[in-house]
Amino acid sequence: MILRSISLANFKNIGDAHLDFSPKINCFLGNNGMGKSNMLDAMYFLSLCRSFTGAQDGVLVRRGEQYASLRANYVRRGMDEEISAALRPGMKKSLKRNGKAYKRMADHLGAFPVVLLSPADMELTAGEPAERRRFIDQIVAQRDNAYFDALVRYNNALEQRNRMLKDENGDEALMDVLEAQMEAAATYIIKRRRENIASMQEIFNIYYSAIAGGSEDARLEYTGDDYEAEGGLAEHMRRTRARDFALRHTASGPHRHDIAFLIDGLSVRRSASQGQAKTFTTALRFAQYELLAGALGIKPLLLLDDIFDKLDADRVERIIRLVGDNEHFGQIFITDTNRRHLNEIIEAMPGEEYGLWNVENGTFSLISQ
To answer: I need a surface site. Which of 90, 121, 298, 345 has the fewest CB within 10 A?
Structure first.
């Protein structure tokens, strides 16, 4: 899949921009806060219907403006495609494919896949379990629409159950119904999470070793209760209702599960250096890329946002070699404040077309192509 061009109006700090892209590598150079990452966020939004920062849609509209619009032209499976989005504060966003609005945003997931590496990925190792659940959920949802539907069903039932716990509503028949709904969805969610982590492990090991250049044993382990041993999640929840009423929330289920990130058997969160943690998250994203490309039959867009921070020169060089491998990655978009890194990546891909833009205060000026 190739992103041929993008047009933005009033998106974050970008007032007006139209860029035509190289089919291989595109670089954005500029100081922090100039709008480089906002361009990547626009690409991410058009693929996943949300900002990678987690910001609400209304916040994405440029300050002082009433709307934002995004439009992109792709080549996907040999066909020209257009995706457009419109945002207005206080109103529901609009997303269209070839001029036709989606009935459900979920139907768009996985159609135009994207993988983003950014400084915020450090939260995967240092942050709360919710960050790691979001990571695996995003991967599985792009591969499997039924998974997204299961998440929606589970979360809706969870919200109702938590409301009953807070209101001290002891309607056992209704609790039974909600817990049965949660079990049906949770069984699928947990199964697909475990399968995808297992599939990712071997690919992840290859990338981690290639970047780290050593013999460290890096692993991913899904951590969650085995409800089957207790007769299923619904039975477990029935037995623990009194506890949950005391806590006023549901303390068991896939919404509480985690993924353990380990290096030589030790938690990355507790014992890894910043360089090890950055290597871990970079290998995770590269493994995510390969997993999605294999499952979908489409090479995702690869967005690399300031990825060389906190890495020593040797690891930077190894990443540059990986990114320059034409066989694994398709179209790449990179931001950096250091032109030397961008030049090294371009030089690692001799003969390939490239685009290089300078970015200042939301304005993109083509330097070279």
So the answer is: 90
68-76 and 79-87 as β-strands: parallel, antiparallel, unpaired? antiparallel
Q: E strands of the chain, at which residues?
A: 2-11, 14-20, 25-29, 68-76, 79-87, 94-97, 100-101, 114-117, 218-223, 258-263, 266-267, 301-305, 332-336, 354-360, 363-368
Residue 319 pLDDT: 81
**Cα pseudo-dihedral 221, 224, 230, 234, rounded to 10:** -140
Sorted by where each starts, the structural domains of the chain and their CATH numbers stand as 1-113+298-369 (3.40.50.300), 127-295 (1.20.1050.90)
Percent of the chain with pLDDT over 70: 98
What are the two backbone dihedrals, phi and then psi, of residue 270, each rounded to the nearest 5 degrees?
-95, -30
In tens, the pLDDT along 222-249 reads 988 778 767 889 999 999 999 999 999 9
- What's the confidence (pLDDT) of residue 344? 79
Cβ–Cβ < 8 Å for 318, 207:
no
3-state secondary structure of 52: coil
